[in-house]
UniProtKB/TrEMBL annotation:
It comes from the Eukaryota. Keywords: Membrane, Transmembrane, Transmembrane helix. Residues 1-44, 79-107 are annotated as: Disordered. This is Uncharacterized protein. Residues 1-13, 83-101 have a biased composition (Polar residues). The chain crosses the membrane at residues 114-138, 158-183, 608-629. The keyword Nucleus does not apply. Residues 21-36 have a biased composition (Basic and acidic residues).
């Protein structure tokens, strides 16, 4: 129909409604300029959609057309109102669409990739193995010669390289563990950008430790991040030790050179060389220099010797010995004895009074003789069988009787009495020193050609009774024991004391009745007097007689008992035989020669402790890291890729856009923005409180 517009329904004919021409032109103009596809709007279901057409001939739309146009106008207005919003949020929508694959990926079921735990464990095990290798390498170098400078440099390079490698491996294991623990901690707390930066840059920036938020919220993991293996142990140079077999001198008691004279009647005398050697020890108190083995390279020499040698063993005297000793003391005769006022023909012993303190007096009214005195020291060698009082000599106490010791029946003992003065009181000590056969282990050392001998082992075997040995035709080794005993005891025999004559009426050896007389022996002229017990006794006697005694500073007097002093003197006299070829023979010994060449000296304790502490701390860190991996369910690192992917949240990106470039230092406002890491989704901004304006 002309001048009308029709709406053709898809199901049946529609009613026709006449419209004014003006409206017709208006609608025609509208649809001529705009075309709307109503199929794109949910307000028009497909089941009821119609096609809007204009009948040019009539120019009048139907009623349905008017209703449709009204709806279309409404839709168009809505689209215009939302147009600007869609344009404004276009980028955000695009970003959301871009993030969709990431969200989809992070939303998958989590599983720990093998790389992070494997690297942690492998680095830890490798570091521990190389640390053990470092220790074994230095142990192999210990006491080895350094050699030339090139060899020394290579040894130090290898040691430093092993130390650095241990450092790198343990630090790598700790670093991976620290990162895993850090990601776990970040997932539980909102932390500022600046704190996150400091946490990941803890090993490169010492100022990170000034971050209070880091110290307060991440204090548990700070020690883990700060663990470092020890530095390389330095190698110290020392002496090189070379071991070789050589011939060295050892005492040979069967050597006949100990004896200079021997007759069929059993009398013999000591070799002059041995006498001089013992005399030198008595006077100086020092062991003579030993003979160093021949054909040795220069250096400090050490070797061991074992032998059976004669010694004196001193013990407190028994009561029987004390009684016999006193009887022997009274029987002594001679002007050089303890009672010089008796001559060889005087037999009036009943007139002599001797108390338990060895103070004595002698009174002979017929001769007008009154003498008092005191004994400070007395040494005597007893016979095997005591002689009666009619004998010319009751015991061997005079050094002039030395030649008789070997031919007489002596016990191989020397009895000594010494007075101990303390605060005006006098107590007498009785000592019995016996000749013993002893087994000795010696450590001989030559340092710069100066010899020293140390006793590593001393075993007392059995006492030697010289009376039981057949002196006539005795083998040389037994004669050597007797000669040793003679020479040592020659300095221990005799007396030291004082006397004073109140009246002189007979054959006296003193020149003045008003003067004190000192009776002395060879002992008082030796170095042995500079020992505490002998020196105190001598000082007390010199004070009694009113003579000045040279005072010695304390360090000049050795604090040693008389028993120990006698044993030491006898030992040195025996060892002194090592200084003379005549009394020794050669035997094969193992010699250690410490030369002045540079060697490596390794003190393992420092390295073991350092590496052990580092290993234990690293193991603890790895355990913490593995636990964090298990809790996280996935592994993270500190690479750029990880941070780029985990910063995809729209709000995080909005914040970061305000600070392009990323140059240091980071803007303070940006540093205050707080983030929390959501495992599987990345970092999110803290919206719970106020945050800086960006």
């Amino acid at each position: 129909m002309e001048g009308q517009s029709r709406i053709l329904s898809s199901s049946a004919a529609s009613r026709e409604v006449a419209l004014p021409d003006s409206d017709h032109h208006t609608q025609q103009s509208r649809f001529d300029h705009e075309s709307i596809d109503i199929s794109q709007h949910p307000e028009f279901p497909l089941s009821t959609q119609t096609t809007l057409t204009t009948d040019v001939s009539s120019g009048s739309p139907t009623l349905n057309q008017a209703a449709l146009m009204s709806k279309l106008d409404l839709l168009k207005a809505n689209e215009k109102r939302s147009g600007s919003t869609q344009e404004k949020n276009y980028d955000s929508s695009s970003e959301a669409q871009t993030a969709t694959p990431q969200d989809h990926h992070l939303g998958k079921s989590r599983s720990v990739h093998w790389l992070s735990p494997t690297m942690m464990v492998v680095s830890l095990i490798a570091g521990v193995i190389i640390a053990i290798g470092h220790h074994l390498y230095y142990q192999w170098l210990n006491e080895q010669r350094v050699g030339d400078s090139n060899r020394q440099q290579w040894a130090l390079r290898i040691g430093n390289g092993l130390s650095i490698l241990v450092n790198v491996l343990l630090k790598a294991a700790v670093g991976i563990a620290y990162v895993q623990y850090l990601w776990k901690t970040l997932s539980r707390n909102f932390l500022s950008f600046s704190t996150i930066n400091d946490a990941f840059g803890l090993g490169q920036n010492l100022f990170s430790f000034l971050n209070w938020e880091l110290l307060s919220k991440l204090r548990v993991i700070l020690p883990i991040a700060s663990l470092f293996p020890p530095a390389t142990l330095s190698v110290v140079r020392g002496q090189a030790v070379n071991v070789t077999e050589v011939e060295a001198l050892n005492v040979a008691l069967q050597n006949s050179e100990f004896v200079s004279f021997y007759d069929p009647f059993g009398k013999y005398s000591t070799a002059q060389n041995f006498q001089k050697m013992v005399s030198g020890i008595a006077v100086t108190g020092d062991l003579p220099p030993l003979v160093i083995p021949e054909n040795l390279e220069p250096g400090n020499v050490t070797y061991q010797l074992n032998n059976y040698l004669p010694l004196l063993r001193c013990n407190p005297a028994s009561e029987a010995v004390k009684t016999t000793f006193t009887n022997l003391l009274v029987e002594t005769r001679g002007n050089d004895g303890p009672f010089p006022e008796f001559n060889e023909t005087n037999n009036a012993t009943s007139l002599l009074a001797l108390d338990e303190h060895l103070d004595w007096s002698y009174f002979d009214a017929s001769r007008g003789l009154n003498v008092t005195g005191g004994i400070g020291y007395f040494g005597v060698i007893p016979y095997n069988m005591l002689h009666d009082n009619s004998s010319s000599t009751a015991a061997l106490w005079n050094t002039s009787q030395r030649s008789d010791i070997g031919s007489l029946d002596t016990l191989g003992q020397i009895w000594i009495a010494i007075a101990n003065y303390d605060g005006g009181k006098k107590e007498v000590e009785f000592i019995n020193c016996e000749l013993y056969n002893a087994s000795l282990g010696l450590n001989v050392t030559f340092v710069n050609d100066v010899s020293t001998v140390q006793i590593d082992r001393r075993e007392w075997l059995e006492p030697i009774n010289l009376a039981s040995m057949n002196t006539l035709g005795a083998p040389p080794d037994l004669l050597s024991y007797s000669i040793f005993f003679v020479e040592v005891c020659s300095y221990l025999m005799g007396t030291f004391g004082w006397s004073k004559v109140a009246a002189n009426g007979g054959n006296m050896s003193v020149e003045s009745t008003a003067d004190f007389v000192v009776h002395t022996n060879e002992l008082m002229s030796t170095n042995l007097i500079f020992h505490s017990q002998l020196n105190n006794m001598r000082s007390a006697i010199m004070e009694i007689i009113g003579e000045e005694w040279l005072e010695y500073v304390p360090y000049d007097i050795q604090n040693i008992s008389l028993s120990a002093l006698v044993e030491e003197f006898a030992l040195n006299s025996t060892l002194g035989a090592l200084s003379n070829w005549d009394f020794c023979e050669y035997e094969n010994v193992t010699v250690s020669i410490a030369t002045a060449q540079n060697v490596y000296l390794y003190e393992s304790r420092s390295l073991i402790i350092s590496y052990a502490l580092a290993a234990v701390a690293s193991i603890a860190a790895v355990i913490v890291g593995l636990s964090a991996l298990h809790c996280n369910g996935v592994g993270y690192d500190s690479t750029v890729t990880t941070f780029a992917v985990t910063m995809q949240d729209s709000k995080v990106r909005d914040v970061l856009r305000q600070y392009p470039g990323g140059a240091q230092p980071v803007d303070r406002n940006l540093g205050k923005v707080k983030l929390r890491f959501e495992i599987g989704n990345g970092f999110v901004v803290d919206d719970s409180g106020s945050r800086p304006t960006v």
